[in-house]
Amino acid sequence: MASHAQVSVTAVSKVLNNAYGVSPAMKNKVKTAIEELGYRPQAVARGMRGRTFTLGLVLPHIRNPFFADILDGLTAYLETTDYQAFMIQGGATRKVEQRAVDALLSRQVDGIIMVAPLASKARLEEVAKEKPVVVLARHERSPHYDSVFDDDEAGAELVVRHLIELGHRRIAHITHQDDSIARSADLLHSIRSAAYERVMREHGLEDEIAIATSFYHEQGGYDGARELLRRAPRPTAIFAGADQAALGALAAAHEAGLSVPADVSVAGYDNTHLAALPNISLTSIDQDGHEMGRAAGKLLLERIEGRRTPVRFTVTPTLVVRASTAAPR
Amino acid sequence: MASHAQVSVTAVSKVLNNAYGVSPAMKNKVKTAIEELGYRPQAVARGMRGRTFTLGLVLPHIRNPFFADILDGLTAYLETTDYQAFMIQGGATRKVEQRAVDALLSRQVDGIIMVAPLASKARLEEVAKEKPVVVLARHERSPHYDSVFDDDEAGAELVVRHLIELGHRRIAHITHQDDSIARSADLLHSIRSAAYERVMREHGLEDEIAIATSFYHEQGGYDGARELLRRAPRPTAIFAGADQAALGALAAAHEAGLSVPADVSVAGYDNTHLAALPNISLTSIDQDGHEMGRAAGKLLLERIEGRRTPVRFTVTPTLVVRASTAAPR
DNA sequence: TTGAAAGCGCTAACAC
DNA sequence: GTGTTAGCGCTTTCAA
């Protein structure tokens, strides 16, 4: 490359990093050569001295369409930068997640975004000691990494209040259980669940509290709802902590011969685009994943540029009422 | 690291690569030191001389749960190896896809798996000239890369025959249109679409052929089905080329006040786990994505190890009949 | 403003 | 069986 342009490798490097001390003429010469050769700098070699211009995005899995919104937001933001994000699946256990993070670290990514990680705060801080970290969907306050999350407390409250206002009293909840050892107050599903309990209590419905502990996926929602719908008296509404679970709850209701919302109302969380389909028409909470992904990218780059003070970015959830919830009969 | 173990860096390298010429004693010494230090070899530095032990998986997007099956199969296979796969979104245009591939190439991945790529065969071969490539879900025969796909011709035929055997004659189809400039005979959606037409003809139903060209996603299926259901006479069955589109078709049917399968039968392709939910219960084609991901990983590693002869791995699709299809009334 | 040269952490060729 | 050494393609001093 350098020889083709008849300049030094240093010059090429400087142009690539638009560093100080290159004449416009030199810059042009190099840029022309880059074009002509279709030259692509080896991120790997750059990484030996400095940055790889690579970010890691650790997703628990890729089955939740909400994650796609986050990814799209991140990608859109990075488009204007030299950085590229690679995704890796964190999986269902801390061990697998740790392996994914190690894989990223050993490949010298410049920073890591972790979505709803299972790792403890202490573990995340260890990672943050090596590379800049932004954590999505967890609420703890760490001096060593940034956080991006929606106000799950408020979101869950919106759903439960909505159901109560419709006249429901026997409102059940499906929550998620995972391998995490983080404080429950920092985990989104625990927060949603706790908010559900709190609002129920505040309305004198403590005796109606009914929680199925399952998983935030279709099968989990199905299992959870089956269990809840077998109880007597049967709940008249189910708040599933995530749309994916709500889809399973709708399936369970259908299978039990119950019609939604006439026999049982169902609400979710995340407002995935499936929720908007007319035959599903699921009441849900919207939390702008695109914006969250975008913010995560921005914060991570800031940290890579040297920021050390922690930032917390929150998104305000909004209730989207659809046909899956109505007054009980 | 080497100094801590009191051995040469060469020894460490040899142990890491379990290469020829290290005594068991040396091996132990090094392994102990690795443990003690929590040493993680820098893939980036290894990559300067040889391999990065990193594979790239280019997915069009992460909204199709079928891709998650592929990823799981690939991950399961790689677990027994030293390789790690990173995902990157290929997007909806050739340009964005090319950028993703370039990002992978400039990061020196050892090989690339492309799922349903938009690029031309010639372009894929150029990439394959730089790094080993395995292409999923395309049918062309290239001497320079391996292919993994299901027999879309057979799969589509299974669906259409099934509908015909139920007694349907006005069977419509929803197909996908993308930015690809590959030969249509190599694109899965074109193959499914062509097989639909062929089987219709073979049964003397050429006059009933009705195709909506849209997209393999929920909105696409919805739009396509709306268009088809407005036609007079209305089709009694819709074969959507993918489950994601079928979900949209179910929504459109619902919205039009049509009940499934009484008024209109709907079938999909991919047998995503959503299809199995009781309230959706979508007839679909299963094509073992897990096995496809696994095979792709295996073939790619073989190529990295030096294989030059192309391999084509095909999966046999099977029909899964559920409640969304029935005899017309 | 420019380029020569050192060195990032490894691997591979080679000498011991 | 073991260690020494020369790079891999960049970035970053540092002289010119």
From TrEMBL, chains A, B:
This is LacI family transcriptional regulator. Keywords: DNA-binding, Repressor, Transcription, Transcription regulation. GO terms for molecular function: DNA-binding transcription factor activity; transcription cis-regulatory region binding. PANTHER family: HTH-TYPE TRANSCRIPTIONAL REPRESSOR PURR-RELATED, LACI-RELATED TRANSCRIPTIONAL REPRESSOR. Residues 1-50 form the HTH lacI-type domain. It comes from Nonomuraea thailandensis. It holds the Pfam family Peripla_BP_3. InterPro entries: HTH_LacI, LacI/GalR-like_sensor, Lambda_DNA-bd_dom_sf, Peripla_BP_I.
